[in-house]
Write a structure and sequence with these properties.
The complex is a heterodimer of chains A (240) and B (366). Chain A has 240 residues and is an alpha/beta fold. Chain A is 34% helix and 29% strand. Chain A is globular and about 50 Å long. The relative contact order of chain A is 0.17. Chain B folds into 2 domains: 3-313, no CATH class; 314-366, no CATH class. Classes of the chains: A alpha/beta (240), B alpha/beta (366).
Chain lengths: 240, 366
């Protein structure tokens, strides 16, 4: 099992955000996470990554069978975790190129990927400083692919990205995920990313709990049609 | 002294210390050199005709230089110490662009020595030059003191890029006093780098933008070690129509006390100035006190400032950790990025030298 979450409750700023959730993911699985704003999706991803401010009040998280509750972030990275930020911070004076060469020693790979993601000119710039929304997302995906993570945590990879670039990013992400041993947990609101990647499973999170699971495209169509309220009323057979 | 003699004059430790303040003993990458130890001028030599470089003692006998002594201070109605001994005088001739930097180094050697110098730099009409000056002390120079009076005259259309590297030691106190007078279309760029421990530095260099469309920019990188007190400011008086100024400073406290001052004063309409001051406090014992000042009595001016001080943003550390860096590596990378050599306006050669200096003191990024 790639990821196993058992009876996990998480607090942030004194408020319980995730309430006794359970989740399992297999290797090479791509799981899409839907849910209204504030339902706890980002909290889940940040808790898995080990960011501060997210306190586990109960439960356990396992990655490849190893309990990671108390592991520092960089140790989780060693287990193959990699995250794509929704709003990454700017790092003044640190060039994207320096970060890229830290993540990947092969200069050809860096050059090829930066050209594919139209980031050649960004390599000389400070990481995320004055990047537009779309540039940040491309730069995040760029770093993540160079990092070579096996298990990607993607927080709204397509938000703020124009149509043309969604296609470029979607294709790059898809070809990465088609490699052996790659898995991803992806949060999406717009669903655009579903046009590019082959995801077989989706689930809805509401009010800090998982609601139902299903085929992601079908789920997204239904959410688009009738919103999350119907989701809430639906007595889905797979409801966990 | 001949260059060979100079090499032999210093022990390895002193040579390293002097090199760490930007001196290239080989002179291969320099257009002129000046080196003074305590009160004694060891070297004053121009490798190009465009540059004249002599010790202040000789310059005082030369009418071309003599009239400039104290001129900038008098113009601002300011006192300056007259009892100085030595210093460098540089003249870059009209219309000449000097590609390689001029280097000057003021070195403290004898224990308890009080070095008091008066420097003069004249950039004639349309001339352009880079000047790198290093101030440094031998390990032996306990309780040393350095007072540097400097006057810069940038004539019409002239350009002076002045880089000062302070490489002192724990028990040395220094007090540089400097004024730059900039005429029409002239530019004065000042880069200040202080990465080594020092007991006390107090300085508030001033640029007076007298001329139409004149420019000044002050950029500083300050690392403050435990026990250090650095009261460092930059002031620009904007007098000329269309003159512009920028002050950028970055201070990191490892436990020392930093006063980061800046003052932009508009004395003419249609002038523009911006002041940016950023500070990082890495130790509980460190303090940074940022004092940005903007002043005008006129309406039609554009002066602004931004200041931000505090500890390292945790989110930035975690961001880099999520890319596989340990927390301490992430901190080092962030501090190194913060002390960004790119905020200095430097030619590639000097930028590379200062990056290498940062590599030695702060550790390499990644």
């Amino acid at each position: 099992m790639l990821l196993e979450i058992k009876n996990l409750s998480v607090q942030a700023s004194g408020k319980t955000i995730l309430k006794d959730i359970n989740l399992s993911m297999e290797k090479e699985q791509v799981l899409i996470l839907f849910g209204p704003n504030g339902s706890g999706k980002s909290t889940l991803i940040k808790t898995i990554m080990g960011f501060s401010g997210y306190e586990i009040s109960q439960g356990e998280i396992f990655v490849n069978g190893e309990k990671i509750n108390d592991l520092p972030i960089e140790e989780r990275v060693k287990l193959g975790l990699g995250i794509m930020y929704q709003h990454p911070p700017a790092i003044r004076g640190v060039k994207l190129a320096s970060l890229a060469s830290f993540l990947c020693k092969n200069e050809n790979v860096i050059n090829e990927l930066s050209s594919k993601l139209s980031l050649e000119n960004h390599l000389k710039r400070d990481v995320n400083l004055s990047f537009s929304g779309g540039e940040m997302k491309r730069s995040e995906l760029f770093q993540l692919i160079l990092q070579g993570s096996d298990f990607l945590l993607l927080d709204e990879p397509e938000s703020g990205v124009d149509i043309e670039n969604i296609s470029i990013m979607g294709k790059a992400l898809n070809s990465y995920l088609e490699q052996k041993g790659k898995s991803a947990l992806i949060i999406t609101h717009t669903g655009y990313i579903l046009d590019y990647i082959k995801a077989k499973s989706g689930c809805v999170m509401m009010d800090g709990r998982f609601w139902c699971v299903g085929e992601p495209k079908e789920m997204f169509e239904s959410i688009k049609k009738s919103g999350y309220q119907t989701c809430k009323e639906c007595q889905c057979p797979q409801k966990k | 002294m001949s260059p060979e003699k100079i090499e032999g004059h210093f022990n390895q430790q002193d040579k390293d210390k002097i090199s760490s303040s930007g001196m290239d003993f080989s002179e291969k990458t320099r257009s002129a050199s000046f080196l003074q130890e305590d009160a004694k001028v060891l070297l004053a030599r121009a490798l190009q005709d465009s540059v004249e470089i002599i010790g202040t003692q000789s310059a005082l006998k030369n009418p071309r230089f003599k009239e400039y002594f104290g001129k900038a201070f008098k113009a601002l109605d300011r006192e300056y110490p007259a009892e100085t001994e030595g210093g460098y005088c540089i003249r870059v001739k009209k219309g000449k662009t000097v590609q390689l930097p001029i280097q000057a180094c003021l070195f403290l050697k004898a224990q308890g020595f009080k070095q008091k110098v008066h420097n003069l730099v004249i950039i004639e009409e349309g001339a352009k030059v880079y000047l790198i000056t290093g101030c440094s002390a031998s390990k032996a120079a306990h309780e040393g003191f350095h007072l540097g009076v400097s006057e810069f005259f940038i004539q019409r259309g002239g350009y002076l890029n002045f880089t000062m590297i302070h490489s002192w030691s724990e028990d040395v106190s220094v007090k540089p006093m400097s004024i730059a007078m900039v005429e029409d279309e002239g530019t004065f760029v000042s880069n200040y780098i202080c990465l080594k421990p020092v007991r006390e530095v107090v300085m508030y260099p001033t640029a007076v933008l007298k001329g139409k469309n004149s420019r000044a920019s002050f950029n500083s990188l300050i690392l403050s070690h435990p026990g250090s007190f650095q009261d460092i400011g930059s002031r620009v008086i904007l007098k000329g129509d269309g003159s512009q100024a920028e002050i950028v400073s970055r201070a990191v406290s490892l436990g020392g006390k930093v006063m980061a001052r800046g003052h932009l004063k508009a004395q003419s309409p249609n002038v523009k100035g911006h002041l940016e001051c950023r500070g990082l406090v890495l130790s509980e014992k460190g303090t940074i006190y940022a004092v940005p000042e903007l002043e005008t009595e006129l309406r039609d001016v554009d002066l602004s400032h931004e200041a931000a001080i505090g500890k390292i943003n945790k989110e930035e550390i975690e961001y880099l950790c999520s890319r596989g860096l340990s927390a301490s590596q992430a901190q080092a990378v962030i501090v190194r990025g913060f002390m960004d050599v790119d905020i200095l306006a430097l030619p590639e050669l000097l930028k590379k030298e200062i990056k290498e200096l940062e590599d030695k003191i702060l550790g390499g990024a990644f």
